[in-house]
Specification:
0% helix; 197 residues; 6-stranded mixed sheet; Immunoglobulin-like; mainly beta
């Protein structure tokens, strides 16, 4: 059983906006997640922000109460969502996960992300959604990818599929890219661009 947490070493968030600090792993059979703790070190000190165990999620630092959450029903996705960023949220965040294996021994891993909080200049910004290592879906399923950006309207969107040797194929000029019925040939890397004036 091989477990690795994946995330990003640094993230810029925009003041007053929300930000997701990614932390994810691919679940492994026989390994059961026991605890998950997000801790922070910043100017105001350090501490555990939120902890998840069998009894649920507890927010431990009052300044984060009602503005942090971790996805509920996405096994392996233990990313931290922080709402309405404050300048003082700047700091170093650590995602720590422990698992119990079939012999009842504990395995622990952690990754660290530094968060910078910036004031938006002209509110032209991209909201990037990162699906971690990717999205795996069965053939025949329907799905869609949506792109959203904040900024001065009108905003136009374009979806591309990454091709060989850095080429890109333009697929649609809407905010949403939808597949009524997926085929194996739809596998690939897709990305979206947003433009305003």
């Amino acid at each position: 059983a091989f477990l690795e947490l994946s995330g990003r070493s640094e993230i810029k968030g925009v003041w007053k906006d929300s930000v997701t600090l990614p932390c994810a792993y691919v679940p492994v059979e026989d390994l059961v997640q026991q605890t998950l703790t997000w801790t922070v070190v910043h100017d105001k000190g350090s501490g555990a922000i939120i902890r998840r165990d069998d009894s649920g999620d507890q927010v431990l630092l009052s300044e984060y109460r009602n503005r942090v959450s971790i996805p509920k029903d996405a096994p392996g996705n233990v990313s931290l969502l922080i709402l309405s960023l404050e300048i003082s949220d700047k700091g170093t965040y650590t995602c720590q996960v422990t698992w119990r294996d079939s012999n009842n021994s504990l395995i622990a891993k952690e990754i660290t992300t530094s968060l910078e909080v910036v004031k938006a200049k002209n509110r032209k910004r991209m909201i990037t959604k990162d699906w971690g290592p990717g999205l795996t879906l069965p053939a025949g399923a329907s799905t869609s990818l949506s792109c959203e950006a904040g900024g001065s309207p009108p905003i136009s969107y374009r979806w591309f599929r990454r091709g060989p040797a850095g080429t890109a194929e333009l697929l649609s000029s809407g905010a949403e890219l939808a597949w009524p019925s997926l085929r194996p040939s739809d596998s690939g890397t897709y990305f979206c661009e947003a433009h305003n004036r």
